[in-house]
Amino acid sequence: MFRRPVRPARTVAAAAAAFAAAGALTATATAPAAAQAHARARHVLLLSVDGLHQSDLAWYIDRHPDSALARLVSDGVEYTHARTTIPSDSFPGMVGQLTGGDPGTTGVYYDDTYDAALLPPGTTACAGVKRGAEVDLTEDLDKNKDSLDAGQGLTQLPGSILKMTGDAASLIDPSKLPVDPKTCKPLYPHGYLKVNTVFDVARGAGLRTAWSDKHVAYDILNGPSGNGIQDLFAPEINSQAIGYPAGKDWTKDNAATEQYDGYKVRAVVNEIDGYDHSRTHKVGTPAVFGMNFQSVSTAQKLPSSNGLTGGYQAKGVPGPLLAKNLAFVDQQVGAFLTELHKQHLDRSTTVILSAKHGQSPTDPKALTRIDDGPLLDGLNAAWKAAHPGAGDLVAHAVDDDAMLLWLTDRSEAATDFAKTYLLAQSGTGNDIDGAAKPFTASGLKTLYAGADAAHYFHARPGDSRVPDLFGITQYGVVYTGGMGKIAEHGGAHADDLDVPLVVSGAATPQGVRVGDAVRTTQIAPTILRLLSLDSRSLDAVRIEHTRALPLR
Question: Where are the beta strands (DSSP E) in 116-238?
Answer without folding.
Answer: 133-136, 179-180, 185-186, 210-212, 231-233
